[in-house]
Amino acid sequence: MRLSRKIEKLTTGEAWSSAVDAYYRLSRSLTVPQLLKGLDQSEFERLRVKYGVEGETKAWQKYVDEKRWLRLAIEQAQELHLDRRRPSRILDLGSGAGYFLYVCKRLGHDGFGLDLDWPALYFETFKLLGLRRVIWHIDPYVPLPAFPARFDLVTAFAICFNAHETDHVWGPKEWQFFLDNLEKNVLKPGGEVFLSLNPEPYGHYTPELRDFFLQRGARIDRQKIWLKFQGFEF
Fold first, then answer.
1. Which of 28, 52, 70, 189 has the fewest Cβ atoms nearer than 10 Å?
2. Model pLDDT for residues 166-185, shown as the tens digit of each residue
């Protein structure tokens, strides 16, 4: 590494942040074999035989590769610092096969999923992993269902509920209703939201939508959007 880059990392605090990340990843290391220990491996094989499609990398059948998706889920949890947080209640929208929520569970968090009732693979993996979810279709200007308790964190990875790849992709008005509903009815005071948008023909968001998220106090890194309500400062 060049000397100028080392100095930059020291002056910006990046070196300290990297050291903290390394500490937690060592002290609370989590590996795929650890996650799979205690689970019925024959059930994963049964799901691969039942649902797997050789060479499939895009459609839902890809989720029969539990090792691949558990590795990604570990990275997602670490990026959100869930390996160092106090136990939290987490709602994952579009929870899919549940691998992210399973990592959350193993880190001591209380996770809950929300998704459609299709494909059946998701029902079976949730059962195998010992997770909970509610069946719900997210529509614009429609509140989310009532939950027994509020959440510390709401996550949504590779979002499709915003009418992804259609002529009706959500704009500021739809997102405003959605975020207001989360703040008023779903999140605890000071709760956080993490969004990861899929790309559209124009990019992950229009300039107008980017400005909207920034005005809501978001931190944006390409497709990733972090928000925290009620006075949080990044």
1. 189
2. 999 999 999 999 999 999 99
